[in-house]
Description:
The protein is an alpha/beta fold. Helix content is 36%, strand content 22%.
Amino acid sequence: MFAPQGPTFRELAVQALSSVERGYDLLAPKFDHTPFRTPASVLAPVSRVLRTLGPFDSGLDLCCGTGAGMDVLRQVCRERVTGVDISAGMLAVGRSREPVAAAAPRMEWVRADARALPFGPAFDLVVSFGAFGHFLPRERPGLFAQVHSVLRPGGRFVFPVVAPARPGSPGYWMMLAFDAAMRIRNALWRPHFVMYYRTFRLADVRAELAGAGFDVRLHALPELGRRPDGSPRCRLVVATRDRQPI
């Protein structure tokens, strides 16, 4: 699963026993050599859909990490792209990867908690990749309200969602075991490290986005395959700000 330049087992264990912020600070120098970074096979289809919806002037990568989503925003935003993350270490790595003397759009890296974004309604597009497991279900309505508040009217909040693993499949048991181990870890150890795979259910998320003031549409990503029943393995959620939160 890991490249030779990736973290050792001991380094991963230390990260897992740290807080989310401290854990990613420790992992940051080797993060891009792990399977945790969003792969190009996911980024490319998202870019394809965004090109049909744009262009956009300014974009925000929510929980940007080392900047995989920033690369997507640079393809579809004309003026400015901003990455926000709670980990200073991840931001430092992302900043170091920034193209030298790059043309527009201008790139910015901001350290902040996604639950308290330090922006006004300045963005036409917000994307996020692989970060929602770090938020408990009760935190999502507030998170979505924050995203709504930083989008201009008509702005889009876009992220991919993978279909849940079929019950009884190896992927199902792996996710179940991971979430169970994480709950045991957090019951016995402080600080907590919040990362759960099975709590981000599309039906719940759609209702929460609607409650925050979004009109929600889904786009299939056929490049990522189909399930045995013919449904897409991955969909792109496109939530558009068109009204005030209820």
